[in-house]
Each structure stands twice: as structure tokens, then as C-alpha cells.
């Protein structure tokens, strides 16, 4: 337009009498009548809620607020000192990761009487929970063993790691026994189903 003689800031037309301000764009909801759109515009009381630019600004503000919240959550979750304490096995306050690990392994009732009364769906859920706990504990045991190899010179840290490792191994053994009980109950039900058919 500049090549055709347009001067920035002036109106369009031969005499420059055209409008200078850009036409505001509005976005109306889909499938709504024009009367309803005009009602929406009037009910906004001068605040042009349907203007495209204002809508984009609003979306940008929401995204910025979300990113700030996510950054704060991440900052709270991982602290350098918590990581160091966890690796060295300090006996101070439990880090949030330890609390999360404790939450992630819920107690599963594997009493034989309870297992017999459980539905097939409940047994499947218990089996899934137990297998997830076993996988997690195996990862933790591997991590602790690698830490133990790294801390072979530090006797104090090694003693703490050994006690924690033994506790994790015993917990892992308990979960493996629980898994055997649940799978045994499931197999027993499958067998009885087969016998009932014949």
C-alpha cells in the first residue's frame, strides 16, 4: 500500500478521509442467532468480551498463570537438599519423595477369607496394585544397591543404606508372597469354573 501512495497514520481514500482506526473483529459462539449475539454484546456492559484481541490477551494471561503455578509446584517438589539427604540417607525430616513413595504403596488386604469373598474385579485390582508395588520396590532396591557401591568408603552412610536396603527387601518379599496368594486364588477360581462346565 505504501508503494501505491499510502501514508502511515492517514485515512484511506483520495482525500485521506477514510477511517484510521482498524475495524475490531468479534468472535461469536457457533450456532447462535444474531439476536442472541447482540444480546451477549449488550449484556457485556461496554466490556467487549467477544473482541478477538481481548480474548487472546485473556488466554495469554491464563497460560502465564498456569506456567507460574507449574514452576512453583516443581520448585516445591524437588529441592537440592532433599535430593542430597535422600542419597546420603540423612535421618532428618522425611522428604516429599519419601512421603510420596509411602503413599504409592497402599496396604492390600490379602487375608484368605477376604480373598475368597472378593469379586474377580477386586482380585484383578489387587493383583495389579501388588505388581506395581513390586516393580517400584525392585527399582528402589536396584537404586540402593548402586548407591551402596558408590558409598563403599563411607562407613556411616553404608550402615544406613544397608538397613534401608534390608527393609526394602523384606517389604518386597512380603509383596511377592501376597502376589502368590492372589494369583493362587485366581487360579483356583479358574479351575473351579472349568470343572463346573464339565
From TrEMBL:
Chain residue ranges for the region called Disordered: 178-198
InterPro entries associated with the record: G_patch_dom
Alphabetical list of Pfam families matching this protein: G-patch
Localization (cell): Nucleus
GO MF terms, alphabetically ordered: DNA-binding transcription repressor activity, RNA polymerase II-specific; RNA polymerase II cis-regulatory region sequence-specific DNA binding; zinc ion binding
UniProt domain G-patch: residue ranges: 1-39
Keywords: Coiled coil, DNA-binding, Metal-binding, Nucleus, Zinc, Zinc-finger
PROSITE patterns xref list: G_PATCH
Coiled coil: 120-178
Protein's UniProt name: Zinc finger CCCH-type with G patch domain-containing protein
Amino acid at each position: 500500500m505504501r508503494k501505491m501512495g499510502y501514508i502511515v497514520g492517514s485515512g484511506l481514500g483520495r482525500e485521506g478521509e477514510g477511517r484510521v482506526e482498524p475495524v475490531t473483529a468479534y468472535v461469536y459462539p457457533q450456532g447462535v442467532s444474531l439476536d442472541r449475539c447482540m444480546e451477549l454484546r449488550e449484556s457485556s456492559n461496554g466490556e467487549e468480551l467477544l473482541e478477538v484481541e481481548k480474548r487472546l490477551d485473556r488466554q495469554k494471561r491464563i497460560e502465564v498463570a498456569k506456567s507460574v503455578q507449574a514452576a512453583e509446584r516443581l520448585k516445591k517438589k524437588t529441592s537440592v537438599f532433599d535430593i542430597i539427604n535422600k542419597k546420603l540417607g540423612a535421618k532428618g525430616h522425611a522428604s516429599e519423595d519419601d512421603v510420596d513413595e509411602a503413599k504409592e504403596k497402599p496396604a492390600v488386604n490379602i487375608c484368605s477369607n477376604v480373598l475368597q469373598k472378593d469379586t474377580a474385579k477386586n482380585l484383578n485390582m489387587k493383583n495389579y496394585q501388588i505388581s506395581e508395588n513390586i516393580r517400584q520396590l525392585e527399582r528402589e532396591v536396584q537404586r540402593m544397591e548402586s548407591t551402596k557401591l558408590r558409598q563403599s568408603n563411607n562407613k556411616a552412610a553404608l550402615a544406613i543404606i544397608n538397613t534401608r536396603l534390608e527393609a526394602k527387601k523384606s517389604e518386597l518379599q512380603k509383596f511377592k508372597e501376597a502376589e502368590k496368594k492372589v494369583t493362587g486364588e485366581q487360579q483356583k477360581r479358574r479351575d473351579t469354573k472349568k470343572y463346573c462346565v464339565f
